[in-house]
Amino acid sequence: EVNRFSGNFIPISFATLNKLQLLGLASNQFDGELPSWFFDINQTTGLKQLSYLRLSNNRFTGSINETICTILPNLTWLELSVNFFNGSIPISIDQCSKLYTLRLNNNQFTGSIPNSIGNLLKLQELDLSVNNLTHSIPISISNLNQLHTLKLANNSLTGIIPQSLTKLIQVKLISFKSNQLQGNLPFNLIHLRSLRTLDFSYNQLNGTIPNSLYKMPNITAIDLSYNQLEGSISQQLEQLAIGNYLAYFSVEGNLKMISDTGSQIPDWITLNPLPTTIDDKRIYYCSGIHLTKALLEIQISPQYFNFSNCVCAVEFFGSPPDCVSCPKNMNCSIGGNTCILQTGFFPFFENQQLKGSLPCPDQLAINVLNNSNFYPNTKSNCNPNGNVEIVSGTNYTSQEVCTE
Q1: What is the pTM of this model?
Q2: Is 36:12 a contact under the CB 8 Å cutoff?
Q3: Is 10 within 8 Å of 35 (Cβ atoms)?
Q4: Radius of gyration of the chain measured on its C-alpha atoms
Q5: Distances (CA, A) of 310 to 64, 282, 313
Q6: Which residues are CB-neighbours of 42 under 8 A, at least 6 positions away?
Q7: Distance of alpha carbon 109 from its chain centroid, rounded?
Q8: Consecutive 10-residue runs of the chain (404 residues): their mean pLDDT?
């Protein structure tokens, strides 16, 4: 393994190595289809003792023949990941009944996940991620009670997440990220007592977060981002983080999730001192939030607290998400709904008490209330929402202040 061997030549002499138990050709530059003799039961009788086959990180193409497990019945490790294999996953895969590791990730496999995969009762790791697999997740996967890693991410799987998956009491990692899964989250997640990482992000899941999610005893990372979930985050999250070393929790991108306290930040949640994230339009920043009694950072969308943890970016003012550009010849600092006039653009000095109105171009009327603040009317294009603080200055030119 890890050389620069290239070409599509795997010598047929390999087929006669009747004591060969391990064949590792990973991380080379082999290409093309596997040789025809590899799937010919009459030519590969010598490989029946092979228990470890690793061909990952090459450029192999073509499909995997249904005879692979007839030819290699003693396989315990089959790794074909990071190649260009295509076609469907063999239905006869369950004839490799001794498998405990099956890695077919990062290929171009199509079709559905065969139900027969649920007969691999010794399987501990199943990685089918980054392929073109379709249809639903077979319920038979819940039979794999020795499984500790289940990766089906980055496919085109549809349907619901089977409730029966909570029978996988040994599983430590589940990743169904970036599919087209729908429906509710499984309601009895508490049964996944060994689970440490749960990633259902970038799907179409709906409904609310079940209380059982906050009771998983060993969970360290939960990613439910970019779904269609509703409701709010339970305060039970605090106890989960304090007692179980939860390090990551994200519901970002679930635009229907709204805090049951509205704009008010509850006392069990604290804002980070400075805004840390910025929206896609780059007109406002939002402070991250974390638990008051734990180190857990919580990823949410700005809508969750009705933008109350957000501020307008530099050179914008108002109230997020309705931040507008700062008018010409004014300064707008981050987080303000106040525009500050630059010195030299207003006709009166500090400490003057002024009342009345001042005409301005573009049908703008400014009501001057005192020396430091004035309020444009609601039709103003300069400042529709906030106050304008007058610093000082002379040589007022109305065109320079009010036009954009």
Answers
A1: 0.81
A2: no
A3: yes
A4: 31
A5: 53, 12, 9
A6: none
A7: 23
A8: 54 76 87 81 72 94 92 94 96 96 98 97 98 97 97 98 95 98 93 95 97 92 97 92 88 94 92 67 83 90 92 81 75 67 44 32 30 33 37 31 34
